[in-house]
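Troubleshooting entry. Yesterday's outputs looked truncated, so today I'm pasting the complete records for two proteins to confirm everything comes through intact. If either block looks cut off, that's the bug. Protein one:
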Amino acid sequence: MKKIIMSMFFLSSLIFAQYWGERTTEQSFEQSNLYFQNHYLNTFGVKYYKDIAVGMIDDPFLNIELNPALIPDIGDKEIYIYLDFRGDRTEPTIVQSYVQPLAMESYSSIYIPPIDRRWFSDTRTEPEPLVSLGIITYPLESNSKDFYLGGTYQLILKEESYYSMPYWIYNSQYYYDSFGNELASRSSYDIVTRYSGSDEMVNEGHIFSVFTGYKFSDNLNFGLALNGISHSRKGNYANQYYDTYYLYENYWNNSDYTQRKQEYDDLDINAGVIYKFTPLFTAGLKLGLLSGAADQHYETSYSYGSEYGSPEETLEWYKSYSSSST
């Protein structure tokens, strides 16, 4: 009985359900690590520190994120201002190939198993704020540190490629080499090539927060915070190629266009309370509610046309056209 239980325990890691994770959702909606998350001003937002900064580093803005009832300590100053223009901390890469093991059955055949989803890795992250601003102030008389007000604003703005690399966007041009230099010899038949394309994705986001707190007594603090984000991601990929050969009426045209747009907004309100039971024991509580909505639009179209000759010119001629859109 013990052997059966142990075998089932170890084999369970190799067994998968019919649907795993969010597979059915991911097939129709593009996920983002900006969606349905609590957003705040992270003054230590550098790699390896940003995920553990809250609660580990003593900073006024990080302490407010931990619990808005924590009255920030800004020394003798009545107003505290933070400003940075750091932009993206890292430039992420896109993994385009995945390593998978190959099991060789014999010298004459190789078995290639399907890609296991557990080997997938995605290193792309959303761009981080380009500009960050934070303000904390004590609006009451200068000798009172019992009541504070504050707010933050962060701007995300970055233009990147629609894809990690522009597939099929670079085509060879007749009579020219790869450096754009004209070749010495030309064909006896004129060839006209026209090409146009685009490959861009624009990310824009506005992150804001307001917070306040009050110290009712030496033992009781209360705080309230509201933060939100408005984010949009718009881009398109277009590839149009056109050729004409003048031996006969020879025409070729290929057009591929894809566009997607995402918009997301949310509001997150949270309240916190801190009570000091004894000089050595203090407890706190933080509750919050986040409400957001995401919309996605996707459009793609493809067309192809080809003609060669005509019945009046040659016995070998054809015409072919196709078009599709989603």
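Protein two, checking that the full record survives here as well:
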Amino acid sequence: MNSYKGGVIIAVHYSSVSPAVAVTAVSITIPSSPTAATLSISGTMLLWKLSGMGADEVTVDQTLSGTTSESIEALLEAARYDDLDDVMSLASFGVSLNSKDSEGRTALHMASANGHCGIVEYLIRNGADVNASNVEKNTPLHWACLNGHIEVVKTLILAGATVSALNSHERTPIDEVMCRGKMNVIDAINEAVAQLELTGTTVS
């Protein structure tokens, strides 16, 4: 691990980034005040954890494959900011889509909270747990309901999200919506539940 001044270009040499990819040299520009960054080369996502080392310095820590705290952070940030390409690239590097950060949040939490239906659908198709809970026992459905993201709410319920899940405040997603008077979200929940019941699916 080496320290460099922010805003400069460096070259990092290594022999392998994954069993399928070999890259010999990479040049990147480090921002002056970075937190985390990703670099895409020929369709391959390389992960870098950039953390402040003082007013002007940053540390570059190569994270090339698998699930690590750095790759989890990158995954959650990609889901939060609706960057499907990065989510897919991270998954291709072996980062689990059910990875949780220190607060128990998953990529599905972040995408659901911010209304990114495309990423929500991708995560669900690829095995993300729709009922994953964070440290406060909130599920992605709790957060989608809280923020009024109707299409995400429907998508989660149709994929098997539990409507009656209780968080640490003993509230279900419906309780959270009722407290805030978001009747359009209630209508969306009822619509999705009715759609499932027509297929003979029991909704919990």
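Both blocks look complete. Sanity check on protein two: The first strand starts at residue 2 and ends at 5.
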